[in-house]
Amino acid sequence: MLTRLKVSGFKNLVDVDIRFGPFTCIAGANGVGKSNLFDAIQFLSALADNTLIKAALSVRHSEGGRTADVRSLFHRMGGQYDQKISFEAEMIVPAEGIDNLGQKARAAITFLRYKIGLAYQEDENLPSIGSLTLLYENLEHINLGDAPKHLPFPHAARKWRNSAVQGRRTSPFISTEGNGAERTIKLHQDGNSGRPKTFLARTLPRTVLSTVNATESPTALLARREMQSWRLLQLEPSALREPDEFTASPGLGADGSHLPATLYHLARSRERENGGRSSTWLYEQVASHLSDLIDDVYAVGIDRDEKRQLLTLEVTDADQTVHPARSLSDGTLRFLALAILEQDPMASGLICLEEPENGIHPKRIPAMLQLLEDIAVDVHEPVGPDNPLRQVIVNTHSPVVVNYVQDDSLLVAELKESMRDGQRFKSVHFSWLPDTWRSDAAPETLPVAKGKMLAYLKHMTDFSDRNTHPVYTTGKRRPVRVGERPDLQPRLLFLNES
After folding, report:
1. End-to-end CA distance of the chain
2. Per the confidence metrics, is the pTM higher than 0.85?
3. Is there a contact between 92 and 1 (Cβ–Cβ < 8 Å)?
4. Which residues contact 471 (CB under 8 A, 6 or more apart)?
5. Which one of 37, 165, 232, 479 has the fewest CB atoms closer than 10 angstroms to its CB?
6. Range 306-310, long-range pairs (CB < 8 A, 24+ positions)
7. Distance of alpha carbon 186 from alpha carbon 140, whole angstroms
8. Which comes out higher in pLDDT, residue 318 or 160?
């Protein structure tokens, strides 16, 4: 769980410092840099898994596609680029995990801070794109006694924080020493004995974090696993509509692929947990979610085609008409994917989603926001299989979405002008509303005025009073069987509503 992120020198992110809760909605006009924040998170995730150059080339270009020039990652002011990119991420990591060789790892402490600095360098082997060099890399603990001030969002201290933040540590896991060409990065073992491994920073093709295993540094491995789990969901209708072969691995892909296999295996897993009893309960939970979007959902299920060895997602309406995934609307499929993700206890980490309102009728946006809240960890209950350490960040330019999101969950992205070295430049700034936990956590920062938020909503009619509109509720919903829903009367199934 990413609780705080500082970024400087990456695209138009300059001296950015954001605190995150379990659910965050970033609102702002197109082109201000909302997506650049997601790109920064994805870049950090890629650095934990790939070489520096491969991570850099995986970042989206501002004009679409992938970055073709590493220099384009750096903030530019006129014709000059910043000299370095810096990141600082505070995170809660899983207490346990598995490395690439199947070895078990247990964290010495689960509340960590990761810092990394990168610089551009010319590369004769890659003259057209350049390369990156590692300036410094540090992984250190955050004391348990300091956890309350580092986790300022409302949460249950005894139930949630004590289950998520555990352990102790007095020394760093990764540290940087020296200066210039002789700067070294050290990987420390979790135990008190054993000499650290030392690497010359300028020769490293990848981060030290991306190389760790459970034997030498289990805590660093779990930090790596946490960062690897940060992903941007880009749910593609074509991928969502595809059936799966029987042999397909479960787990929703970033593009929405393997939706049928994921639902089918989740249902089978619940069946085994219940001693072989019916697996319909899970299907009913997904159908209950979908009924918040579409009025006459009767059932959601999987067609198992033994002849073709294929699994196909299906939705049945109140007239008992079966609609396969290929006939469902884009918005319905996106909603279904998120509803299935919410039921998957193995889907943990940070989920970024752009414009969740796409394909959703404005009347149904509260249902989408409620579902996104349900996906995120409930910070009033202990972390566990039924409450995985999961986090959701979305961005939007829709005033309808902004109207329905709770004030505590809102961040506002704006382009603001700054001055440096006698030159003016614009960069994205993130603000919050007054009388919220972010305002309390950073009293020195001026929150965005209510009037500015009202101006953002000026094109809406009669949206100034939230009490006159249905507002979704926060917190986890009670499991409900579709048969218990009195409002699910036979109605026409508008699968193409958008």
Report:
1. 33
2. yes
3. yes
4. 366, 404
5. 479
6. 309/245, 309/246, 309/247, 310/243, 310/244, 310/245, 310/246
7. 12
8. 160
